[in-house]
Amino acid sequence: MAWLLALPRVRRLGMYVAAVGASLAALAALRRSGERSGRLQEQLEQEREVSDARQRMLDASRDRPRGRDDLARRMRDGEF
């Protein structure tokens, strides 16, 4: 095996193969990173939607009638 590595053409071919392998590994890592970034962005958008819905529910509960008298007054005034 050592005599094979002593040949300059085989050594050069080995360096090219190693360079191509390293390039492919780097591209695969970039692709995986991009997919992860996309998943995190989707998760952030879902959390924003949930937060907005929760805020709307809190706003609605804050503006609700507090009792029967308040409800009756709102209905008479046409606010409800």
Oligomer: single chain
Number of helices: 3
Residue ranges: pLDDT <50 for 5 or more in a row? none
Let me know the average pLDDT: 90
Helix-strand pattern, N to C?
HHH
In percent terms, what proportion of residues is strand?
under 5%
In which range does the helix fraction lie?
A: over 70%
Q: Strand pairing plus helix content: what structural class?
A: mainly alpha
Backbone CA Rg: 33 Å
General form: rod-shaped
- Count of extended strands: 0
What separation lies between the terminal Cα atoms?
89 Å
Main beta sheet: none
Transmembrane segments: 13-30
Region (Disordered): 37-80
Keywords: Membrane, Transmembrane, Transmembrane helix
Biased composition (Basic and acidic residues): 45-80
Structure description:
The protein is 88% helix and 0% strand. It has 80 residues and is mostly helical. It has a domain of 53 residues. The longest helix has 55 residues. It is rod-shaped and about 100 Å long. The termini are far apart.
Summed up, what is this model?
The protein is mainly alpha-helical.
Question: Which SSEs are present, and which pair or pack?
Answer:
Layout: H1 2-6, H2 8-62, H3 68-77
Which structural traits does this protein have?
transmembrane, membrane, rod-shaped, transmembrane helix
